[in-house]
Amino acid sequence: MKKIRIFFPILLIVFTGCRTTSDFNQVLEDMQENLDFGNLSAVIQIADSLKKFSSENKEILHIADSLEQIAGRTGIDFSVSEKEVRQRIEKLNGPFSDQEKDAWEKKGWLEFRMIDGEKKYFKRAASNLILIKKFREHKEERLREIANEPDIVFRLKHTEGAFKASNNQSNPVAPVNMIGFSAVLFLRQLLPENQPPTWGLLHHASGIYHEYGQAPL
């Protein structure tokens, strides 16, 4: 259903000469709302009216011009009709049913917007749909293949635990028990008195620690 707002604020400004900040803010709100609903022609018409009758308000004109540019860009990006998008998908993927198309749209795989009351599709919607379908299908197939692999099971359980921990405690990861040691203290036992440690000696000491499991007493 086509939704176009009635432009009482802009008419009020033009015909009564009432040009307060609140009036202009209402006009900008109308423009934003029309943009959100895809009423791009209305956005452009309001912007043109502001340029004609409110040339002295540079800040308002700047915002209105930005909204007009967004409307123009949106109209270019979403310019493919339903008939055209069907032809493109069939050319890339073969025939499909209305039920399949509805499902793709509900999942967000087939991008569209209502533009001036008409359903329009993103200019790359067909090619993007094919890429998304392939990714989703291959992903599900791959997950089924590796579902019982021990390392995958471990990762999934760990990931689930991390999410649960973050939900309850706002922690980014699940707690992990760790054992640490001080290589500097261990190195000090190997060096003569008053000799400063170096990175080379630190690396050598670390290797000795890992080989024997503890520092010699």
Structure summarized in a few sentences:
By secondary structure, this protein is mostly helical.
Low-confidence stretches: 1-8, 208-217
- How is the biggest beta sheet arranged? 3 strands, antiparallel
Q: Quick one: how many beta strands?
A: 3
Described by the principal axes of the CA atoms, the overall outline is flat
**Helix segment count?**
10
Into which percentage range does the β-strand content fall? 5-15%
Determine the mean pLDDT: 76
Radius of gyration: 32 Å
| Quaternary structure classification | single chain
Fraction in helix: 55-70%
Order of helices and strands: HHHHEHHEEHHHH
Care to describe what's here?
This protein has 4 domains: 8-78; 81-143, no CATH class; 148-176; 183-212, no CATH class. Helix content is 67%, strand content 6%. A hairpin with a 2-residue loop joins strand 2 (112-115) and strand 3. Strands 1-3-2 form a 3-stranded antiparallel sheet. With 217 residues, it is mainly alpha-helical. The radius of gyration is 32 Å and the shape is flat. It contains 10 helices and 3 strands.
List the main descriptive attributes of the protein structure presented here.
217 residues, mainly alpha, 4 domains, three-stranded antiparallel β-sheet, 10 helices, 6% strand, disordered N terminus, disordered C terminus
